[in-house]
Design a protein that fits this description.
CATH topology of the largest domain: Rossmann fold
Largest sheet: 6 strands, parallel
CATH class of the largest domain: Alpha Beta
Strand order of the largest sheet: 2-1-3-4-5-9
Shape: globular
Number of strands: 11
Number of domains: 2
Number of helices: 10
Length: 307
Amino acid sequence: MTTLITGGSGMVGKALQQELPEGVFLSSKECDLRNYDQTLETFKKNKPTQVIHLAAKVGGIMANQNQLGDFYRENILINTNVLEASRQCKVSKVVSLLSTCIYPNDCTYPLTENQLHLGEPHPSNYAYAFAKRMLDVQSRAYRDQFGCNFITVVPNNLFGEHDNFHYQDSHVIPAMIRKIHEANATGNDVVMWGTGSPLREFTYSQDLAKILVFLLRTYDEPEPINIGNTEEISIRYLAEKLAEILNFEGRIIWDDLKPDGQYRKPSDNSKLLSLGWKPESYMNFDEALAKTCDWFLKTYPNVRGVK
């Protein structure tokens, strides 16, 4: 079996290198997945029997709001090309990563897989969300027409070593880590967006890598499957815990004129647990956060989004 991982140089790709050291890890430097001819040529060259599709254009609230068209177009191109190249090259199984942001803004909590297409996503990132929904639609369409074993999985907010720490394009945990560290270095206070009251679920990248390998062996159904850690953490707790881990001595100031986003979006991972994944297999959040901060401190400033 040859497993090709798109987005192989990203955070989850780096984590997968520990779980699948024999895999083929494809980065954007080696192939522009927005270009179909390049994508097909790369697949023909590597002859994968399995694909874990991680590659995407991603970012935080500001990036999503400011680059709506770019987020939609680039993700549609990437996803369409990867699945079509997989079909053409007769890949036996594709596991594609979605996101909980694809769920409807007005839905019943916890988020269950059958609600995925039942309404509009949150307006703050609707372009990215719809592009990710279409990845699920294309996977099911190829299964129905061509018999492709293409599955989709839904993580929640991811974090870990090798994350993107760019101020505008990163997600909440890496953005906070960088803000607090750099404010500490200059003796300044730190300003965080919103009120700190929203609740979020976070999954450590190494846990996600293990789950993806687990699903390569155990899940072949057309319906998407939630795979994230369902423990809810407030944004305020996150900031205070990071301040503790990073020995921050300044003040945390909350700018409530900036958006909070959705208040909460808890997910239901019971389908994953029914396959044999154990809740205790997720790393403790505080421990995973400390490991991420330790890696950042040892690597800074040579981290993605800073250097």
